[in-house]
Amino acid sequence: MELVIRGVFMYLFLMVIVRVMGKRTMAQASTFDFVLLLTISQVTQQALVGMDYSLTGAVILIIVFVAVNVIFSVIKGKWSFFSKMMEGTSLILVDNGKMLPIRMKHSQVAEDDIMLAARSTHGLERVEEIKYAVLEKDGTISIIPYKSES
Fold it and tell me: In the chain, helix, strand, coil percent, each to 5?
């Protein structure tokens, strides 16, 4: 039973940590972020198994992680507030060609990140050419340009 409790606790703890790290961290992982995730995974493994290195223990933990994930999926499907709490919502960062600095700072998105997305997806060179830039739930930035008058 101890393995099940450890598994549920670590799943919930890791969900909170990933949520705190922010969307942009997960979408654009740097070398440092990668090393951090590797270290977290090693520490998590030690916290989960303790001294139990058995095959049975590993199977139990995998089943617990999958079960908790399925339960959260069902809960997110039934209650939208829970989904918003766990995954966040999309966030407009540029509105009609104007950057929204408070939102950008809060979501840890730099002007360069927005312009990179604008150049790579639409070939836009200036922020004034962007109608909306949206930070999606998965951490990517969607660019909606002004319609060209051709």
Answer: 65, 10, 25
The first and second tokens of residue 84, run together, are 């918003």
DSSP string, 35-46: HHHHHHHHHHHH
Q: How many residues does the chain have?
A: 150
Residue 11: both structure tokens together: 């799943």
DSSP 57: H
Q: Which two tokens stand for residue 103?
A: 């939102």
Query: Which residues lie across from 99 on neighbouring strands?
Result: 94
Helix axes 31-49, 55-78, angle to 10 degrees: 110
pLDDT one-digit tens code per residue, 101-113: 999 998 889 999 9
Name the token pair of 21. Answer: 């790290």
Order of all β-strands in the sheet with 141-145: 98-99, 91-95, 130-135, 141-145
Instruction: Look at the block and give the residue holding tokens 């790290």.
Output: 21
